[in-house]
């Protein structure tokens, strides 16, 4: 009986070490990147009024999270799957200004009212590992 208890304790300690190491290997982070944004504006009849574009610096989530599949006698598939994904913890909204605006003929717009366009976008403010499919945050 003593052997079984000490074996169980050793097994739990090994499992704890493996779990701590796997969490240390995660590297989900918020990374700045530059994207090209194009936004078109249409009138009430559905005709193109102007098209604006620009390079915008935004954040993105990037990295790896630890997932695992292990045999299980409890689940119907015979395996217990725990999947984790690197995704946003919080989104922030901000305005970006697009400065390259053109009319439907491709001519650059110069007048103050049409030469720039402000666009609202949402970007990750912070990223971390979440259980895949968990949208309840």
TrEMBL record:
Gene Ontology cellular-component annotations: bursicon neuropeptide hormone complex
GO biological process, one term: G protein-coupled receptor signaling pathway
Residues of the signal peptide: 1-24
UniProt keywords, alphabetically: Signal
Gene3D superfamilies, A to Z: Cystine-knot cytokines
Record GO terms (molecular function): G protein-coupled receptor binding; neuropeptide hormone activity
Keyword Cytoplasm among UniProt keywords: no
Protein name in UniProt: Burbeta
Organism field: Galleria mellonella (Greater wax moth)
